[in-house]
């Protein structure tokens, strides 16, 4: 068994592959460990797969898996971890936003006995204002609801040892939020700080809409508390309406009949209509996820692969 897999999910990254291999190889060669690259092509439509294949044909320590279509980075990562077969796995983005210089620090912590070593971003300077704003809110909301809060400013860039990888291999969910799952496994965790640089080449594959949906997956996968909130909200509303009703009855008893209150009725109907729609929406979020889980479809389908060992 080799020591280390560098696991790289790719979607349309023809410009970034060579830069990535050039930047990582010297670092990996300097580690005194046996290692391999595992590229998971996530349904690219450009030359990505051809380039990966030509590398794999020349070099024994470059493996690849090609998925039948785009299943998303999370599915590609899960696939890679299930197939890696080494003592440790480091998932990395191809665009060099995960600095290769950090790998030796990861490995050092691993040798000290940590099962997982997180790359933690020192700051978010390389992100736009909007992305920083949403991500800080995401962590607040997620960690408010989640049973196991996730450490802020971490991504998928980390080292997982065999124990963590083994735990991840047992996962058969189809709505995936890998950061949450890594964290869910537990184990002894250390972290190393880094500054995230800009993308080396090509374009980001994440639109704001994709990020928003990803954040919802993260939150609704982590907790069922949003469902329970409505019980309390309903109880509070019922109590308030009871008090209000008693108030009206008393008022009529003491002061006689009042003019009919259309305005307050309209406000109440609108308010509770909105509240009910929102709570149905939350139910829908969970039912949708239950639906996709009970179908038991695999999270990805492999079209072809080349795996040594
Ligand atoms: N990626 C993928 N499948 C997708 C989207 C992205 O495999 O559906 C890969 C992408 O090729 C890259 C990594 O995931 O290696 C991170 O993507 P990106 O750099 O676009 O994300 P960002 O850094 O902008 O969050
Ligand atoms: Mg990137």
Commentary on this structure:
With 309 residues, the protein is α/β, with parallel strands linked by helices. It folds into two domains: 4-208 and 297-306, Spore Coat Polysaccharide Biosynthesis Protein SpsA, Chain A (Alpha-Beta Complex), CATH 3.90.550; 225-294, no CATH class. Helix content is 50%, strand content 16%. The protein has helices at residues 17-29, 48-58, 73-83, 103-111, 129-145, 162-169, 178-184, 208-222, 225-255, 262-294; strands at residues 4-10, 35-41, 62-67, 88-91, 116-121, 154-161, 189-194, 302-306. Strand 1, helix 1 (17-29) and strand 2 form a beta-alpha-beta unit. Helix 5 (129-145) packs parallel to helix 8. The longest helix has 33 residues, at 262-294. The chain is elongated. The mean pLDDT is 90. Bound molecules: uridine-5'-diphosphate (UDP) and magnesium ion (MG). The site of uridine-5'-diphosphate has 16 residues, from strand 1 and helix 3.
């Amino acid at each position: 068994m080799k020591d280390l897999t560098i696991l790289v999910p790719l979607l349309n990254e023809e410009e970034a592959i060579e830069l990535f291999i050039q930047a990582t190889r010297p670092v990996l060669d300097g580690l005194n460990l046996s290692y391999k690259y595992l590229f998971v092509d996530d349904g690219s439509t450009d030359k990505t797969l051809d380039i990966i294949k030509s590398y794999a044909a020349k070099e024994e320590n470059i493996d690849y898996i090609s998925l039948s279509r785009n299943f998303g980075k999370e599915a590609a990562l899960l696939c890679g971890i299930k197939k890696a077969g080494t003592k440790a796995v480091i998932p990395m983005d191809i665009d060099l936003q995960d600095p290769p210089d950090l790998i030796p620090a990861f490995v050092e912590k691993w040798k000290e006995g940590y099962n997982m070593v997180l790359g933690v971003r020192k700051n978010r300077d390389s992100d736009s204002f909007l992305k920083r704003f949403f991500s800080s809110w995401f962590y607040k909301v997620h960690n408010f609801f989640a049973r196991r809060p996730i450490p802020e400013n971490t991504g998928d860039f980390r080292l997982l040892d065999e124990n963590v990888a083994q735990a991840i291999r047992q996962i058969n969910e189809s709505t995936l939020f890998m950061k949450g799952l890594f964290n869910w496994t537990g184990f002894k965790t250390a972290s190393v700080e880094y500054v995230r640089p800009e993308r080396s080449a090509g374009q980001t594959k994440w639109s704001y809409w994709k990020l928003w949906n990803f954040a919802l997956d993260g939150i609704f996968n982590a907790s069922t508390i949003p469902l329970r909130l409505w019980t309390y909200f309903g109880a509070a509303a019922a109590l308030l309406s009871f008090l209000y009703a008693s108030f009206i009855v008393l008022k009529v008893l003491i002061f006689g009949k009042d003019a009919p209150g259309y305005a307050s009725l309209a406000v109440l109907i609108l308010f509770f209509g909105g509240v009910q729609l929102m709570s149905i929406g939350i139910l829908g979020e969970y039912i949708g996820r239950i639906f996709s889980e009970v179908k038991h479809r695999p999270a990805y389908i492999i079209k072809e692969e080349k795996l040594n060992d």
